[in-house]
Amino acid sequence: MEEARLFSDIELIENLRSGRMLNESVKSVYRSYFELLSRYILSNNGSLQDAEDIFQEVVVNFIDLVRKNKFRGEATIKTFLYVMNKNTWLNELKKRQRTANRELKYDRAQDDVEMDVAHFIAGREVKKEVLNMVNRLGEACKKVLLLFYYENLSIKEILENTGYENEQVVRNKKYKCLKQLEQIIGANPASMQTLKNLFNG
To answer: For the whole model, what pTM was predicted?
Structure first.
């Protein structure tokens, strides 16, 4: 089997601009620079799959720049690709961090709602009052909340007892039901006071 040819910088640029020997040129770029570029990503919280995805994106963008005559050869291809690879990966990490922060914020909001509502459900004396409110939420919410708070089932066990797709869907449903319950409690000052009196009594 013939080994893929390695092109010089000048040859690569000519090939990419003209579209000649494109496959061979891309293979040459891969053989010459993938190890170097992937090493940066692997040493900065990335996986091999991340390295491959970023490399592919970088090569596509590099070809586009060359064809638009925006690569002027002021740096070697090696240096240029390394900088592109670094910047693309740093942007990806920032994007992932923003996503993680959004998810953390959502999880904290869920926790806050649970703390606001769950303390009403905890006491035995308030069960009847809470049940009357839960009954107003509809069968789906009623089932999830009763399984969780009254039968003390885990999210996984609730999943097994319901027709939801996965545990995250169950968590989301419980969160929405708690929000609805919170609104019912908040909209009914008399019930709110009764619950507080029972809870504090």
So the answer is: 0.48
